[in-house]
Design goal:
single chain; alpha+beta; 6-stranded mixed β-sheet; 6-stranded antiparallel beta barrel; globular
Length: 353
């Protein structure tokens, strides 16, 4: 199926698009709304993400030697966050790992940022040749829908047969996959073949507001969940993105590529870099991978992981700080040209977990 089939369908439903990095996202439907005025329940197309399919008799064994998460600990009813690292422990991809339950042959899906699908395949291809497994991108064939709030619960229950009730739980049938996500309110992500998505979408829009993709990225920022995009690939070790606090790293599973560096950081030292959630006031449009500086000294003190504009004056962001910025709640920042204020916000978990 053509990759733009879903985009064309959304355009027919009133979607307007914008470019974010190298990916086209839905900016809004019919009329623009600030992200600080979103309805309590909404749906949005997850156009920034896509699925990588890994299947074959040796697929679990192959991934166990490459991923930070414990592949053997998941099931068709339980997913996990995870990452894959270079030998130096730098993350080149992050994902949600899902096990399919409709195949006799082991079959997994890695949901990740769309702009690193090809590079992830290229890197993993160096290792998969030694295993009876194959990788294929499902971009364009399967699409994602983010759902926040409980207004859609009855519909989702009818469509999928039941709904997951605990974080990381999965429900799947021949129509698609539904996963329960962390957040201040109930969140689900649904992954479906293109034609099933076009069946479910109008049913959802009858009972929930459709909004742009940035609303979902903002939900992840507020949940303290970082995703590796092309702009920050191989920039950080897992602890710099607080992956130990969101159970994206197993310290008991055994060896995997980069494991020595990750374990040494956990047990013998302390990550020199730390991810924080912040509000930026008066900043120009910023993007992932940009460096931030101390406005007075022009010292490079942080790198942006992701950021979303919430209104004309404010952005909310995740950033990796090179210095200890937690000893004060406000900072004077610069992007090298413009000065603006950064304000420290709470994360929904302890960083030292």
């Amino acid at each position: 199926m053509p990759k733009d089939n879903w985009k064309n369908y959304l355009h027919s439903q009133g979607a307007e698009f914008c470019t974010h990095g190298e990916t086209q996202l839905v900016s809004y439907f019919n009329s623009s709304t600030d992200n600080d005025q979103l309805p309590s329940s909404f749906i949005t197309p997850l156009m920034h993400q896509a699925l990588l399919n890994i299947a074959g008799p040796d697929s679990a064994k192959f991934m166990q030697g490459q991923l930070t998460c414990d592949v053997n600990a998941i099931s068709p009813k339980l997913s996990t966050l995870g990452a894959a690292c270079t030998p130096k422990g730098r993350i080149y991809t992050s994902f949600r790992l899902i096990q399919r339950d409709n195949n006799d042959t082991p079959h997994f899906l890695l949901r990740m940022r769309k702009d690193i699908i090809d590079s992830t395949i290229a890197t993993l291809s160096k290792y998969i040749v030694f295993f009876k497994s194959k990788m294929t991108s499902l971009e364009g064939d399967w699409v994602g829908i983010g759902i926040k709030g409980d207004s859609c619960d009855n519909l989702l229950n009818q469509f999928f047969g039941s709904i997951p009730t605990e974080i990381n739980q999965v429900v799947q049938n021949n129509k698609g996959i539904l996963i329960c996500l962390p957040g201040a309110n109930m969140r689900y992500e649904a992954w479906l073949p293109n034609e099933q998505a076009q069946t479910l979408w109008p049913q959802l829009t009858a009972i929930a507001s459709s909004v742009g993709t940035f609303a979902w990225i903002l939900e992840d920022i507020r949940a303290g969940i970082a995703e590796v995009s092309k702009a920050i690939t191989e920039a950080f070790i897992p602890q710099a993105l607080n992956f130990q606090a969101i159970n994206a790293i197993s310290f008991t599973k055994g060896c995997y590529t980069g494991q020595e560096i990750v374990a040494r950081t956990q047990y013998r030292g302390k990550a020199k870099r730390l991810m924080l959630r912040v509000r930026l006031e008066g900043a120009p449009p910023l993007s992932p991978g940009m460096d931030l500086f101390d406005a007075e000294t022009q010292k490079n003190i942080a790198t942006l992981v992701d950021t979303v504009t919430v209104n004309d004056q404010q952005q909310e962001a995740l950033l990796v700080a090179f210095d200890d910025l937690t000893n004060q709640s406000d900072w004077q920042l610069s992007d090298g040209t413009n000065h603006f204020i950064g304000h420290l916000l709470e994360l929904p978990y302890r960083i030292d977990e």
